[in-house]
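Lecture 7 notes. Example A: sequence first, then its C-alpha cells.
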Amino acid sequence: MKYILVTGGVISGIGKGIIASSVGTLLKACGISITSIKIDPYLNIDAGTFSPYEHGEVFVLDDGGEVDLDLGNYERFMDITLRRDNNITTGKIYQSVISKERKGDYLGKTVQVVPHVTDAIQEWVERVSKIPVDGNDKEPDVCIIELGGTIGDIEGMPFVEAFRQFQFRVKRQNFLNIHVSLVPQPKATGEQKTKPTQASVRELRGLGLSPDLVVCRSSLPIHDGVREKVSNFCHVAKEQVICVHDCSSIYRVPLLLAEQNILPFFKGRLGLDLPLRPGRPLSKWNELADRYDSNTSVVKVALVGKYIKLEDAYISINKSLMHAALVCNHRLQVKYINSEELEDTMREKNPVKYHEAWQKLCGSDGVLVPGGFGSRGIEGKIKAAQWARENKKPYLGVCLGLQVAVIDFARNVLDMKKANSGEFAPQDDETVIIEMPEHNPGDMGGTMRLGKRKTLFNKDKSVIKKLYGDVEVVEERHRHRYEVNPTMVDKCEEKGLKFVGRSEDGKRMEIMELRDHPYFVGVQYHPEYLSRPLKPSPPYLGLILASIGQLSSYIARGCRLSPRSSFSDTELSDTEEEMMTYQMSNALRINASH
C-alpha cells in the first residue's frame, strides 16, 4: 500500500481537496486502484449536525455516513464509493480511545495522546485504506489522505505527530507528502511572495514531516524565478515545485498537474507501475474541460434556498447542475434566491428585495428547490413551487423541495388552505407532510433516514423513469426525517399529481410528477450525491433538458443526447436542428435549380 498525505499551509480552504482528488484522478487514469481518507480535526463525531454555513453542505454516503463535502469531491472526481470510516474526526478517534479505556483494553496504563491517540489514528488509516471502493473486492493500491485545516493548528497536532511516526511505520518508499501552500500577489506591488510558503514548510519540517512536493496555489501562473526561490528555501528540487493557478474550471487541475510531470515523479518516488501516458479517461476529462470553456449558450436555473450566502452549502447541487449542463453543451448560470425574499411579508418589509427576488425567478429557465430544515423561508419555497407549476416552468424539488410542492398542490389545487408539514405546524387533518415513525426525537445526530435505499417505479407512464433508462428500480441516497402523508396520496393523484416511485414496502412516496407539465418533478432522495462529471444525475439532466427545450426530443431519440451519441459531439437545440434541416433542404433546392 502506498500512502499520499496532502497537507495545507498559510490559509484554510486553499484547495487541498481538489488537489487530492486530481492526484487520484491521474493515478486512476493510469490504471491504479485508489481510495481516499479525509481527516477533520474537529471534535464532532461527524458533520451531520453542522449548519451549512460552518463547513458547507453535509455529504451523505451509501452507508448513511454524514461527512465532509470533500468526500463528495473524491467520489465525483475518482468515481469511487466511500464509507463513513473514510472520514476521520478527532471526535471519532477520542471516542474509540475512551471506549477502549473503559473496557480495560489498555491494562491500567495512563492513556495519553502519544502513543495511544496517535496509534489509534495510524491503525484507523491502515484499516480503512485496505477497504475496496471500486465496486470489486480488490484492495486499493494507493490511499490519498487529506489532513484538514492548516499546519500549525492546535487541533491538528496529534494527526501531524501520528503521520510523523507513520512514515517510518510504512517505510519511506511507501509514503509521500504533498504540501499545498499559498503564493499571494499583493496588488500594490504585483510581486508573487514566497515568504508564507517558506514559513509553512519550515513549520511542517519542524514537526517532523518533509514535503516531497510543494504545490503553490496562486491567482496567476508562477514565474520560474519564484519556483526556483521556493525550491531553494523549501528543500525540494525545482521540478518538485508544482504551480496550480486559478483555472477556468476545476476540471483543468488534473491536466495542469499532468503537464508538470507529476506522474513520472510518482513512478520514481513510490515505485508505481505507471504508463508513460494516462489512458482514455484523462482524454475524456480533457474534453470535459474544453467543453466547459467553449460553451456559449447559457441555461439559467433559479436555486431557491436559505443558505445562499455560501455556495458550498449547495456544492453537490451546483456540481450536478453543471454536469447536466455540460453534456447538454450549455453554460450553467445559477441564480441564487433567498426564499424569504419571495414571501408576502418581505413585500412590506423590503419591497426592493422582494421585487428583485421575483425578477430573478421569472427570468430563469428552470427552478430548483433543494433540501433543508426549519421553518425559515418555507413559505417562499412553497410560492416558488406554485409559480413553476402554474406557469409551466421546469421544476425539480429535492427532499424538502418535493414536500413544498405537495403542500402547494394541497393548498391551491385540493383547496386545503391550511395544508402544511408537521415540521412547521401542529399536526391536524390537513397535515400533508408527517414525521416518520422511526425518527428518534432525542439525539439529533444520525437519526434521519440516511444512506442508499431502493425506489421502485410503478406502472404509470413517467418521464423520470425514462430518464433513468426505463428501469424498474433505482438506488439513491436519502437524508430526511419527514415524508408525504400516505392518507393524502389518493387525493393528490386524482387531481394529476402522480407518485410514480415508492419505497420497497410501498409506504413512502419517493418520486412525484405532475401530469400535463413540461417537467415538474420532486424526489425525496438526494440524486446530487451520485452525479458524476461524465455521468450526470437523471433528475438534474431532465431539469436542464426541459429548461433548454430539448427534453421531448431527447426522449424521442431514445434518451440520447445527440443523433451521433458521443460525448465529444456538439449538441444542437430543437430550433437549431430544424433550422439546419431547412437550410440543407433549401440549399439542395437551389443546387437543383442551377
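Example B, a different protein, same format:
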Amino acid sequence: MKKHIKLSMAFAVLTLGYVLTPRPEAPFTGHGNVDTLSSLYNRWKTSHEQQGNIETLRIALTYSKAQSKDLTSASGVALLNLVSGQLQVAVNGLSDAEQHDVWLLDNHKTANADSAIKIGRLSANHRLITQLDADRLNGFAIDGIAIATANQTPQSGGLLFGSPSLLQRLYYTERYWPTANLGTAKAEVGQPQPARAPFEFLLPKTAQASAGESNDRLTRLIARGQQIFTEETFAGNGRTCATCHRPDNNHTIDPNYIAKLPKTDPLFVAETRPELADLEKPALLRQFGLFIANIDGFDRPPVMRSASHLLGIANTLTFETAVNPGYGNGEFSQDNDYFNAHDAEAQQSGTHTQAIGWSSDGAPDGGSLRDFAKGAIKQHMPKTLVRAENIDFRLPTEDELDALEAYMLSLGRSSEINLANMYFKSPLVQNGLLLFNTKNNPKLGDGSVVYGTTANCNGCHSNAGGISSTTNANPTRDTGVERMRDQLHHLADPNVAYDGGFGQQLQTDCGPNFDQTCYSDGSQAPSGTTTRPSDHHGLNRFNTPSLIEAADTAPYFHNNSVTTLEETVAYYNTDAFNASPGAYTSSKANRQGKLDSSQVIAVAMFLRSINVLENIRSSNLLDQKAIALNGEQSIRSLKLAIADTQDAIDVLQEAVINPYPDALEKLQQALYLENQAANRFNPRRGTLMRKAMALKSQARDLIVSGG
C-alpha cells in the first residue's frame, strides 16, 4: 500500500512538473497564415512550369522610387539561363543620346566585398546578349540587376532596377537545393532529382535554405515578417509598416481609427517634427485618411492616396496586360524575338510583375510586393525630406524583404470563394448575389437595353474578388473616379493634384472638366468606348480591389472619395462611371449600370454578407492560434480574433437593415466569450474560445449554405 502511495505521489509530481513547465514558444504570425502562402506558391509554381523555360530566371527592370537617380519611364526585362549562363537584357524607353551599362548586384556582400559587377553595355537598340563567366562570378549571388548610365555605378547613376521575388527564390531554392523542401513534398527515395544547373550558385537563396520542413520554415519566415512589419522602423522617423496598415484594423487605417490615436503616435510625425512638416498634409490625413504619395517621382507633384488594405492580396497579384490596342502596357515591341518566343511570363505581365498598390506602378524595382517596401520606407519613414539612404532611413536587407513579403502574402484568404456554390438564406441577399453575378443587360426585341436588372459586377470582380472573369488577372481600369465632381478632399484642399493612376506620362485632360494636369500612361480610350465618341481623353487607370473585404475597409476608392458601401455601389449608376471607358468591355459591349435604390441595398447587403463570412473564417483561425500559443502570444492572437468578430458585428449593424438577426445574436455572444477569455488568468480560456468558435460557425450556417 505504501509503495502504491509513493508511486502515485511520484506520478503526481511528474504530472505537475509537466503542466508547470512552459511549452516551447511557437512563432507568432499574427494574421499570417502559412497555408495561404503555401497555396499561392504552389499556384505560381504550377503556372511557371506550364509556361516552360523553368531554368530561366526572369527579372523585370523598372524605375525605382527608392534607388533610381533620375525619373524615367523606361522599362525592361532580364533573362538569365541557369544552365547555359546566357544573360539577355532588353530595355525600351532609354535615351539614345546616352550609353548604359548592365550590373549584377549582390546585396548580401559586406562592405569589403565586390557587391556590384558590371556585365556589359547595352547596344544602340538597348539590348545585351552575353555569356556569363562562372569563374569571375564565383561566390556571387544575384539579388538584383541594375541599368546605370555608362561609366557610373548603380549607386551614382542607376536608372532601372529589378530583383527576384520571394516566389522565385523559393522555387529555385527548392529546385536546386531539394533538402530545403519548400512548398512541396520531399522527393521519394530513388526518384530523380532536378539536374543541378552550372550557374545555380547565382541564385538568390532564402535564409537557411537547407534547414527544416516546408511549413515550419515558412511559418518562421512569416513570424519574422510579422515582427519586422509591426516593430522595425528602418532607422527612420519612428514609423513602421503597421503605422499605416494596422493589423487590428484589417491592415489599413481610416479617419475613425485615426481619431482615436494619441498625438504622440508616429502617424503624426509631420505635426510634431518641423523637418517633416511637408511629409503629409495633416488636415487631409486626419479628415480623410489620405497620405502624400510621390507615385510619379519626388520631383513631381504628389497625389493623395489611402492606405489600401493587405488582406487576400495573394489572390490579386497577377498584372493584367491590356487587351485593347492603345491602352499602353509597356510591353516589348515585336522585334524582341527571343523574348516573344521564350518568355511567356513577360508576355503575360509586361514589365510589372505584380498588381499592387492602387495603380501597380508605385513599387520600385520590378514592381513586386517584395519591392513595394523599399519605396514605402523612402516615402513614409525618412527622418528628413532629403531622403538620403543610410542617413534618413535604411533599406531592408534581402532577408528582411524575404520575411516581409512572406508575411504580406500570407494575409487573408488562401483562395477565391465560389459564389456558384453559395445560397444565402435571406431573399434580399440572394437577390443581391444574382444582381452582382449578372454580366449583361438583357435586351428587348427591338435591341434596346432593359436597365435596372443587373449590377454588372462579376466581369471585373469574378467571385467578388479582384480578378477579371475574362483575363483571369487583376484589371487596371479607368472607371471615372478621378472625374467625379466635388470630391471631398479637393474641396478641403483645392491645390491637391489630380491622380492619373498607372503610368508617369504628363497629360493635360484630367479632372471632371478634362482641363487639369496629371501623370498617366499616356494611353487613350479606344473609339466607341465612351458615351461621347468624340472624346478620347487619356486614361486614369487604377487597380481593381477585391470586394470580399470591402464592407469593413471603408472609405472607398484610391482617394477615399466615397464613405459607405451603399454609396460605392450606387456610384456605378452615376454619369462619372457610365461615361468612363470602364463602362465598356474590351469588345466595346455596354456595361453601364443603373440600379434602383432597393437593388443598391441588395447588392450592398450581399457584399456585407460575404465580408461577415470572411470575418468569421479569420476570427476562428485566430482563436485556434490563441489556443495553441502560450502567454502573451496567445493574448495577442485572441485580441486580433476579437477585432475580426467585432468587425463582423459592425458590418451587419452598420447596414441598418438586418437580414440575419439570429446570426448577429450568436456573433455578439461569441464576442462576449472571447472578451472573457482575454483574461489570461481565466481557467476556462480554452473552453471559452472553443465555444465562441462554435457560435461563429453557427452564425455562418444561418447566413449561407454551401461555399
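Note on Example B: The chain is about 35% helix and 10% strand. The mean pLDDT is 84.
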